[in-house]
Amino acid sequence: MEYTILILLLPLLSFLAIGLLGTKLKPCTAGLVGTITLGAVTVLSYFTAFKYFTAPKVDGAWEAFPAYDVTWLNLGEKLHIDLGILLDPISVMMLVVISTVSLMVHIYSMGYMKGERGFQRYYSFLSLFSFSMLGLVLATNIFQMYIFWELVGVSSYLLIGFYYTKPSAVLASKKAFIVTRFADFFFLVGILVLSYFTQTFNFTELMSGDGSIFSSAIGASFMGASALVWAMALIFIGGAGKSAMFPLHIWLPDAMEGPTPVSALIHAATMVVAGVYLVARLFPIYLGYTPEVLAGIGYVGAFTAMFSAIIAITQTDIKRVLAFSTISQIGFMMVALGVSTSMHLNHGDHGGLGYMASMFHLFTHAMFKALLFLCAGSVIHAVHSNYMQDMGGLRKYMPITHITFLIACLAIAGIPPFSGFVSKDEILTAAYGFSTGMGVWMTITAGLTAFYMFRLYYSIFWGKEYKVTNGHTPHESGRWMTFALIFLAAITVVGGFIPFGKFVTADCVPYDIKLDWTIAAISVAVAVVAILLARKLYKKENEKPTELATKISGAYKLSYNKFYIDEVYMFITKKIIFNGISRPFAWFDRHIIDGAINGSASLTAWTSEKIKSFQSGSLQWYAWVFLAGVLLITILAIFV
Amino acid sequence: MGELLINTSGAPAPMLPFLIVSLIMFFAGVYGFFTRKNLILMLVSVELILNAVDLNFAVFNRYLFPGQMEGMFYSLFVIAIAACETAVAIAIIINVYRKFGNVEVDNIQNMKE
């Protein structure tokens, strides 16, 4: 399956072509080049998935194999960095997700970004991002993954800062880059520790075998934990940074400064789940050798899920609600991985359910969250505002956006038969299997999810009537945009019926998804109650939400201000790091380092000034000196 | 060294006066070379130094190695070369004069910059 290399090369070429030709292309041409390339990539991805899942299984399991592999750098006897394409169930699944969402975003952007300055630049960056993200999921080794990991980081930075004349966008892109880069530093250290002990970067080599490869890493210990635990924890910090896990989530809400389709693609569907993908990719190591780290991942995910769901309830910027919802849903995926206790899923051993549920939720979430963002973009396009108070009653003006948004809301709330119901139910089942506390916690979070999503839905499409000002009536978006909405909505409707367990499980052995009807009933009941509550509060304009907010104003303020995490960061960076560390360093740099350099320069200048007259150019003076020297030597020769 | 300065070969004149004259000429030349600012006068001073050397050659040859002629020939060489040198120097000085309008060394600073 060597043709899979085209999946990477096509977007790269499209990036280079659009990026280099730039303004020489007509905006429309650039957009079409990007979209058609992505269309080809999508076709190739689907074809790859089809070929992969129709190929015969080995011992009843899907086989993981490198479709393409070249040695790029030799670092020693055993250690080498390869570039290649690894095909296994999760990478093929990610191929489908990324190419589908990316294609939809490309199509949608043709309408959404129309007439924007830098339209060509936008499409070249989108191609760069698609290339990097596909490279990330197809990586055969952890170092290749890291390279593409940084590439998605930089394309995210470029796209968040797309409106580079807007100071808030510039700040947001900087923040996103610095926070994720800070986390990536730990990722790199983790990779280095892991590869130092195991002498390999290769995923296949790491996973296969009897674990003797880790014996030296387990043997070495540092501060009470083995080197392997450190390495895996550090690698997870990298993943947590990209996936916006608490407390590294602060960049994601600000990243909404980018164009909305970018938020849909990068900050909802693909890049932010890279952390989940990373944990899933290294899952056998986490499970087999560092179960304490895996449990930690579960707890971080559970806390983040609840935490950001609470924040999402009070936000008024619709994109920020969706951003916090994304963080919360990624928390669900992390929980699902964290509660897995076994690789296996069949024969009475259901420990591996979480892994399958996590990947399934990743798949369905990518579709319905991208849809939510694209709908939000459509709404913003129509009313020219991000804020809920400027919206209301839009269902009359934008029927398609309304229906597709409702479908996505039902899916994320976990209402059958939409896709989110099935995947979320699997996660909850896995969580209850882990511990009742975890299950209840996640069920409450699911209820909060349903509540804030329907608060959003009712505030946008119902609530107060939209006031038509200056003769501007909101209208349905154009064909490019509605096509993408309808396509994603269709996937959201049928996504739950995909026999996902047949394709993706931890040990690659197909599994039939069985719904646990007790848990399903509980979660649906919780979701319905939450939806009814949101309907009561927000369907008609009334005073109840304001009253409620004043009644619990302390909690409301805490949530509205995102628990002051940003302020804590600002305090730590500005007051502690800048004053305590950076200032002394700056003083040292300015006075000691620069002082030494400046001092040596002025010493040279001073000396030159003093000895300048030696080089007067006056021959007669030279002759005098010469004669004096000769006389001196003569006298010395005679008398000494 | 003392015996070299008195007449040992029976020659009518002693050696020392010649050397004193040569010494005076040499240092007069050196003094002139150091103090004169006019190129022509500096050239004259250099010629004076050369003539002092010529005289030394002749005197030492005559008094120390009377049977040989090398010192004398060296004097002739030096005179010939001094003539050439003068010719070249005069040519340079004429060019300097054409360029700068005078031949004072202190005014000729352009080469330095």
End-to-end separation of chain B: 51 Å
> Assembly state here?
heterodimer
| Largest interface chains and counts | A-B, 7 and 8 residues
CATH topology of chain B: Helix Hairpins
Secondary structure: helix percent of chain A: over 70%
CATH architecture of chain B: Orthogonal Bundle
Number of strands of chain B: 0
**Number of alpha- plus pi-helical segments of chain A:** 26
Our Rg estimate of chain B from Cα atoms comes to 18 Å
Estimate the strand proportion of chain A: under 5%
Query: What characteristic shape of chain B results from the CA principal axes?
Result: elongated
Structural class, judged by helices and strands of chain A?
mainly alpha
Write structural notes for this entry.
Chain A is mainly alpha-helical. Chain A is 71% helix and 3% strand. In chain A, the strands form 2 sheets. Chain A has a two-stranded antiparallel ribbon. In chain A, strands 3-4 form a two-stranded antiparallel ribbon. In chain A, a hairpin with a 5-residue loop joins strand 1 and strand 2. The radius of gyration of chain A is 30 Å and the shape is globular. The termini of chain A are far apart. In chain A, 51% of the residues are buried. Chain B has 113 residues and is mainly alpha-helical. Helix content of chain B is 68%, strand content 0%. Chain B is built from 3 helices and no strands. The interface between A and B is small, with 7 and 8 residues.
